[in-house]
TrEMBL record:
<feature type="domain" description="EAL">
    <location>
        <begin position="23"/>
        <end position="272"/>
    </location>
</feature>
<feature type="coiled-coil region">
    <location>
        <begin position="9"/>
        <end position="36"/>
    </location>
</feature>
<protein>
    <submittedName>
        <fullName>EAL domain-containing protein</fullName>
    </submittedName>
</protein>
Length: 274
């Protein structure tokens, strides 16, 4: 029994070493990709809930890791966050997306921001300089953030938000309904928009409890005059239910997957033709 116990411990140790090594390699490759500007940005359409007309885009980062293929942002973003690479990565995405949307003056842009970036006291300054360099009107841009940082560090979050607001950029509370989201935060921090997480949207098919939750959530946001975007919309039924609930914008595979700038261009031209 002693033998197998030791054998097992040895096995787990090796397993953990292998995992750590894989993570280190991933981090090194990610650092290189950021330095060489090899990350790419895709754009997912956001439509008006009533008309399904294209009104905006969400920028989503992609990494084609040499020798491995595409790595999910759910894997590489946490690594970027824990290694401090997120500041550079985040500003790269913002810069690239701002350059790109210059071609589509009628569309808004949403960009995801990690709490780690928010901790940099000069973050707002960096954002402002991206707007200046790319000639972007700040009011076209919404920065999407999850509630985590606001819960952990409300005072500093408030200060950082104030600096961003002075630039004229908008701030959305992302992933609402995915965790312990509280409508209190919406009011307290004065978010400009709420994004309903896809998990809540997908729960709609399961019946009335999810529908009740959705109605309650959206009507609270609306009573605070905060517009609502629902993400992860995959079916017509979901789109109809969300519109009826009072969401004003929708996003999801039903309207378009994250796509290249060329693909957005085609959509944009169709939109202009009516
Ligand atoms: P998110 O901000 O909640 O973005 C929405 C995610 O849902 C995206 O996953 C998008 O591709 C996916 N999605 C969109 N429509 C549908 C749908 O109809 N059905 C389903 N099942 N999924 C849909 P993606 O691109 O893999 O990104 C995952 C997460 O990684 C994002 O979640 C965001 O938190 C993070 N992320 C991506 N790019 C960036 C970035 O540039 N900076 C930061 N900080 N985070 C990023
Ligand atoms: Ca988002
Ligand atoms: Ca989400
Ligand atoms: Ca997210």
């Amino acid at each position: 029994a002693k033998e197998t116990g030791r054998g097992r411990a040895e096995y787990y140790r090796k397993e953990m070493d292998a995992e750590r090594e894989e993570r280190n390699k991933l981090e090194i490759d990610l650092r290189i990709a950021i330095e060489r500007r090899e990350l790419t940005v895709l754009y997912q359409p956001v439509v008006e809930a009533g008309t399904w007309r294209l009104v905006g885009l969400e920028a989503l980062c992609r990494w084609d890791r040499p020798g491995y293929g595409y790595v999910s942002p759910d894997v590489f973003i946490p690594i970027a966050e824990s290694t401090g690479l997120i500041d550079q990565l985040g500003l790269f995405v913002l810069h690239r997306a701002c350059e790109t949307i210059a071609a589509w003056p009628e569309l808004k842009l949403a960009v995801n921001i990690s709490p780690g970036q928010f901790r940099d006291p000069a973050f707002a300054v960096h954002v402002g300089s991206v707007f200046r360099k790319t000639g972007t009107k700040p009011s076209r841009v919404t920065l999407e953030m999850t509630e985590g940082y606001f819960i952990q560090n409300p005072e500093r979050a408030r200060g950082a938000l104030a600096k961003l607001r002075q630039l004229g950029v908008k701030i959305a509370l992302d992933d609402f309904g995915a965790g312990f989201s509280s409508v209190g935060y919406l009011r307290q921090f004065g978010f400009d928009r709420m994004k309903i997480d896809k998990s809540l949207v997908h729960a709609l098919a399961e019946g009335s409890r999810a529908v009740d939750m959705l109605h309650a959530t959206v009507s609270l946001a609306r009573s605070l005059d905060i517009p609502v975007t629902a993400e992860g919309v995959e079916t017509k039924d979901q789109a109809v239910a969300l519109k009826l609930s009072g969401c004003d914008e929708l996003q999801g595979y039903l309207f378009g997957k994250p796509m290249t700038a060329q693909e957005v261009d085609a959509l944009y031209r169709k939109r202009s033709e009516g």
